[in-house]
Every structure is written in C-alpha cells, then in structure tokens.
Amino acid sequence: MKIHNFSAGPCILPQVVFDKMAEACINFNNSGTSILEISHRRKDAVEVIDTARALVKELMNVPESHDVIFMQGGASLQFPIIASNLLKEGGKAAYMQTGKWAENAIKEAKRFGEIDVIASSKDKNYTYIPKDYTIPTDADYFHCTSNNTIFGTQMKQFPNSPVPMVCDMSSDILSRKVDVSKFGVIYAGAQKNMGPAGSTMAIVQRDLLGKTGRNIPDYLNYATHIKNESSFNTWPVIAIYGVMLNLQWLKEQGGVDAIAKINTEKANTMYTEIDRNGLFTGTANVEDRSQMNATFVLNNEELKAEFEALLKQAGVDSLTGHRDVGGYRASMYNALPLESVQVLVEVMKQLEQKFG
Amino acid sequence: MKIHNFSAGPCILPQVVFDKMAEACINFNNSGTSILEISHRRKDAVEVIDTARALVKELMNVPESHDVIFMQGGASLQFPIIASNLLKEGGKAAYMQTGKWAENAIKEAKRFGEIDVIASSKDKNYTYIPKDYTIPTDADYFHCTSNNTIFGTQMKQFPNSPVPMVCDMSSDILSRKVDVSKFGVIYAGAQKNMGPAGSTMAIVQRDLLGKTGRNIPDYLNYATHIKNESSFNTWPVIAIYGVMLNLQWLKEQGGVDAIAKINTEKANTMYTEIDRNGLFTGTANVEDRSQMNATFVLNNEELKAEFEALLKQAGVDSLTGHRDVGGYRASMYNALPLESVQVLVEVMKQLEQKFG
Ligand SMILES: Cc1ncc(COP(=O)(O)O)c(C=O)c1O
Ligand SMILES: Cc1ncc(COP(=O)(O)O)c(C=O)c1O
Ligand SMILES: [Mg+2]
Ligand SMILES: [Mg+2]
Ligand SMILES: [Mg+2]
Ligand SMILES: [Mg+2]
C-alpha cells in the first residue's frame, strides 16, 4: 500500500533522494567505495558539499555578502550560537515569541545577555502571529521564527528591521521565495525541506561577525565554518549528500517559485476541507495559517477511533499532532505530493458521509 | 578491482553496514518507509538509538555509574563541552599534549580556565607518548588522547589518575579492552570504529556533572542528553542506524576482545614489514606505536612515484599521510581485513625487489 507520509520532521523526501543515497551506500559515483567509508576531504566528497552550498546560493538567490555553511547539532544548537555570535557583551536582543521553538531560542539567548521579548502570541496558545510590534533600534539583532511547526502558524511577511534580522526557518526553508538580503542570519535544521536529519544550514552575513567581544569556541563560531568552507572538522558525509540530492531535485522541479505554487495548492486543498467539513476545525488564526503544517482538531472526540481507522486504511501516516498540543497536524513539505493531500481530504469526506 | 581502504577516517566499515544502510534508505525494516523520512520519535527509530546505546554498554562493559549518549558536532565540539561541563569557574585542568587533536582540545579548554599542560611530546614532533608526569590532585580533571591519529602513537596504558580522567578515544574506541570505570568521560567522533560520519558518542560519569557553576547551553550540557536519552532534539537517524549496525557486527565478531586480537595481528604484520624492509622507516617511537594508524616514510623520496603506482595497481587506497606531516599512514581500523594489510605488505616487498 502506498504510504502518505505527513510526518512533521524528519519527513518525506523525494524518492530519487532515497534511491541515490541507497546506491551511494554501496558504490558512490561508481568509485568502487561506499560514501560511508570515504574521507570528507576526498575530492569527490568535497564536490558534494561544494555543490550543496552552490545550490543553496542559487535556489535562494543568496547575495555576495552572505555565506552558506553546514554544521551539525540541529536548530537547537543554533539557538545559543546565534546569541554568542551576535549578542554583544552587555548588549540586548529582541525576540518574537511565536511558539515552542521561539521559546527555546529565547531561553538559550538569555544565557548571554538581555533579551527583550517584543511580541508574543502566548496569550492565545500561539495560534497567531503578532503584527503590532516595534523592533528597538538599540538591539543587537531581532530574532523570529518564520514557521511554527507545532502550532501551524507562519509569518506571511517579514518586517523591515532596523537591526539585523535573524530567522529560524527550520520548517519552511526553500518552500517559498524569501529575500535573503533582508536577513542577517537564516538557519534551519535540515530535516524538513533541506534533506535528511543530521545537518544544519546557516546563511550568514559575514560583516556581522566578530563584534561581540566574546571568546567563542571554534565550532560555535560562524567565522570558523565560513573560513573552512564547512570543513573545519569531519562533516556528516551521507547527510550532506542527501541535502545535495534534494536540492538538485528541487532545482529540477523549477526551483523555489515552482514549488511554492504547488505548496500553495496543497495548503489550499487542505484548509478548504478543514473549513468546509463540519467535523473538523482548524486551530490557527486563518490569516496566519502555515502552508507547511496544517493543525486541526476533530470536533467530536468520539469519532477519533473511526477517523484513525480510515486514515490507516488509506495509508495516511504520521498525522498525530505534536505531543504538546494534541489534535492533528498535516505537514505538507516540498516532497509531499498533492495526491497525498487529496487522499487525506478524501478520508475526511468519508468520515463526514458516515457521521456528519 | 577490490579496493583496500586505509582511510584515516571516515573509514572502512563492514560490508553488512553498507548493505543494510542501503536497504534502509529504500525500505526500513520492511515498514514501507525510508529511514530517511521517519520521525526520530517513531517507535522503530527510538529502538535504533536504544539498541546502539545498549550495545556500547555491553561491548565496553560500561558501569552503572556512567551514561552513554549520542550527540552531533564531532570530537571537535566535545573539546569545549568537556571544559564547560567539568572545569569549575576559577578551576584548573591538566592536559597531556600528544598531537594535533590534543592541541585543539587544549586550545578550546583554555577559553574556560587555567590549563596545565603536564606532559607534552611536542619536543619530538609528537613521535612518542610521555610517561613521566604527575597529575596534580587539585585539577578538576585530567585529559588525554588515547590514540594520536595523525602521528601514529597510542597510549598502551592509562595512569591511575587522582582526579577524573577524560579521554578522547576517537580513533581507537572499541579496538581494544578499556576499563571504563577508570574514566570520568570517554568521547569519540563516530567516524572510525563506531560508524559513519555524523554522530559523536560520549560515556559520562553522571555524578561529575553540575559542579562547575557555569551557565551551559542545553545542547552543550551532558545532563541534557542523559536526561533525554539522546533525544533532546532531532538526532541523525541514518548515522545512528549505521552505528547500531556496526556495533551489531562487532558483537558478532566476538566483541572487543576478539577484534583486539585481529587488530594486534594486523599491526604486527604492518610494523614487521616497515622494520624489515630497508626502503621504509616507521616514524613513531616503537613502544608507542599505534595499532590503528601506522605512520612511516619512504627513505628514498625518488621512489615515490613508483611506490604509489604499485599501490594503485594493487587497489591500496588512502595511504597518504596527514597533510600536516606527510609520509604514509596505514589506518587499520576494526573493519579493515588482515588481507588488506597483507596486500600492502606485498607491495612494499615488490618495491624492495625492484629497488632495494
Ligand atoms: C521551527 C523549528 N525550530 C527548531 C527546531 C529544532 O530543531 P532540531 O531538532 O534540529 O534542533 C524545530 C524542530 O522541529 C523546528 O521545527
Ligand atoms: C583523536 C581525534 N580527536 C579528534 C578528532 C576530530 O574529530 P571530528 O572531526 O569529529 O571533530 C579526530 C579526527 O580525526 C581524531 O582523530
Ligand atoms: Mg512551534
Ligand atoms: Mg470545519
Ligand atoms: Mg594526532
Ligand atoms: Mg625499515
């Protein structure tokens, strides 16, 4: 049976990525060696990371002022890295608090100095994106989360920040057009639209670095990875190979603009049914709904078993909401075909026909 | 042609690891999904990391007092982590300096406090392991490197340290029996005897933590990973799967004692030829020679092209010494068969017959 994988991350990737990674585990580029046993400094390995970097630059139209780096440790390690690289000793930073990941980013940054939470949607359980806020001009930077994976909200536009803008784009990177030049740093755990779990990407404006007065460990210093072209130490070869393949696939689809159209179509299909179908209710504020993660609840909890049996029958997998919020979450990342959303919608209609 | 892979890391792994990882990229455990698209919190993923952890405990006979954790960032990120987790504010630590990796560990630790380099072999280009040194009883910990990957030296025994002993075992972990109870922390980048590049392992004595008075970012705090059983954030699923498979293979070989015997046989075969053959000279002090990395030079540089042509013909790959030291380095990690060493020795004999 075909499985429709709505996992929130790590998540579905294109079949060609699976196939080529499998092949490389046995025989990488016809070299007679597995990609798993080669030095990250071997010429054909270096080509992988160079190609991945170049593809990020091309697909996201990264300006000359910014470098693309690959690290490890996930977005969670970026939280303290951001603060240690950008928050001056004795300085302050402004944060927007729009969900659990933003909370974690704030928690980690507070270890390094004063954090001004200038806007928060915690009052309504993170169901919306704050719009009325002023970014203080004396902040070292402004931090926001473009897409709130758990709560299903997404920033539809970014402010014109008077200070460097830093954004956690873990769950919507490469899903839509973004003007990179507006940002000081963009970062993302790879395990959604970038590739498999095991690498982390950052796009860093070079001239922001080296100004905090802090003594930063080499690995945690963006400057180290820029200088060493992400080969400061052993990088996760198979994971970065997956990133490269996934970016090649995205380019073949027509790039970010093309995938954004499909993402919009998928999201519209999903939200239309959530709204139309009397058995379900969306949980996020309509204008702030995420195109990546649609969160919704079943109005009548007594239909839970029946709904989930139908989902299972149809091959719909990993629709359960995050353990902190419950309900359902349909994650519709780049590699999820429209067909999978249609199958899910079909199941929702079936439930309605039986019990609506 | 069969390739004999002497890469210093990432390095050769058992064929069964390549085969099973390839299979999992397409269809993980017959689940109908790729291991690359599943949540790290899915039951069968959690089983992978739990199994890997249990195998480390079993194979290394880890005492109850210690926890096994998997992280990212490589051994290079462990360098500052060690200091921030164990070096008290205003305290000092003792380091043994036996190579480039020890130098880096020292460099990173110095950011956190006073570092006392109590022994160094830098005076002779790191060709030996210092033996006469006293570990100060007022140090917060003593740090050493069990195997110096670049210079080809290895500690044959460990001191009875009056303070917690911390060891970078990146390049000889699981290659020989070690009494874990003697150590406060053992850590290793996975990409030698543990598995593919992309994960890092630490074995940590629980009761040493939480005593520095430092404000440690969650990801960099061992306590976080212990508490969350290495699932604080998204872990590198495919890399840890490779670790698990590799540990299963090692167990099937008879475990650490059995592999240690073969490693000794491989090293003896290698060093016997280096010594016997007049064209070559080993670079490390004989009694400190590493069983993992044999470093040697060709006495007559004019034979370089000829030697390397013969190596190529025989399928001997990645024998070039580290870029910092030159010469040759035969890395003989667990998965390298004795046969590969014999092939290399054969080539050395051939060269001798032609030019000796
Ligand atoms: C928006 C966002 N930020 C941060 C994280 C944490 O990422 P990681 O697990 O790579 O640390 C996630 C994980 O899902 C996320 O969705
Ligand atoms: C003994 C030792 N320590 C540390 C390192 C650095 O490891 P990583 O690249 O995982 O940071 C290496 C890498 O080869 C090593 O051999
Ligand atoms: Mg969130
Ligand atoms: Mg409705
Ligand atoms: Mg060394
Ligand atoms: Mg000789």
TrEMBL record, chains A, B:
InterPro entries: Aminotrans_V_dom, Aminotrans_V_PyrdxlP_BS, Pser_aminoTfrase, PyrdxlP-dep_Trfase, PyrdxlP-dep_Trfase_major, PyrdxlP-dep_Trfase_small. It holds the Pfam family Aminotran_5. Its main location: cytoplasm. The modification N6-(pyridoxal phosphate)lysine is found at residue 192. GO terms for molecular function: O-phospho-L-serine:2-oxoglutarate aminotransferase activity; pyridoxal phosphate binding. It comes from the Bacteria. L-glutamate binds at residue 41. Its EC number is 2.6.1.52. GO terms for cellular component: cytoplasm. Gene3D superfamilies: Aspartate Aminotransferase, domain 1 (3.90.1150.10), Type I PLP-dependent aspartate aminotransferase-like (Major domain) (3.40.640.10). Pathway: Amino-acid biosynthesis; L-serine biosynthesis; L-serine from 3-phospho-D-glycerate: step 2/3; Cofactor biosynthesis; pyridoxine 5'-phosphate biosynthesis; pyridoxine 5'-phosphate from D-erythrose 4-phosphate: step 3/5. Residues 3-344 form the Aminotransferase class V domain. Keywords: Amino-acid biosynthesis, Aminotransferase, Cytoplasm, Pyridoxal phosphate, Pyridoxine biosynthesis, Serine biosynthesis, Transferase. Homodimer. Belongs to the class-V pyridoxal-phosphate-dependent aminotransferase family. SerC subfamily. Catalyzes the reversible conversion of 3-phosphohydroxypyruvate to phosphoserine and of 3-hydroxy-2-oxo-4-phosphonooxybutanoate to phosphohydroxythreonine. NCBIfam families: PRK05355.1. This is Phosphoserine aminotransferase.
